[in-house]
Amino acid sequence: MKTKIDNLLEKFSHASANSLIPILQDIQDEIGFLSEEAIVQVGKHLDMPTSKIYGLATFYNQFRFQPRGKYHIQLCHGTSCHVMGAATLIELFEKRLKIKTGQTSRNGAYSLEIVPCMGACAFSPVISINGKFYGNLNQQKVEELLDDLIDNE
Ligand code: FES
To answer: For a pocket test of ligand 1, which of 83, 121, 123, 134 has the largest count of ligand atoms closer than 8 A to its C-beta?
Structure first.
């Protein structure tokens, strides 16, 4: 039986190594992260060693190697959000959830992702949780948001 990855790779039937990044982006869009199985399949498809694919994929911080958590938290670190204190808020998320950006918590409840400008600079600093935006954040608001999330874990 064909997997989602098989179907996706069919779109790139004559692909070369130059297509690696678009292929990885499509896989991540489709299954939410780059699984080991997906990397192996891409390696066979492009006739590339998996170590080289990992090497390239880890260079770009857009790629995830673990599934998303129940609460996927995107933290904007564009210029405006940075100026408005995003770095401090990112540290707060990491400390409270005990994971680093790019990781998913062991219980599968949370994942953190740094993203570039989310297009809502007027409300900096901005985050989104499962696609819902929160703006004009400060440490106290983030603590309250985290309290709510943890209560509903
Ligand atoms: S920099 Fe964060 S929304 Fe634009």
So the answer is: 121
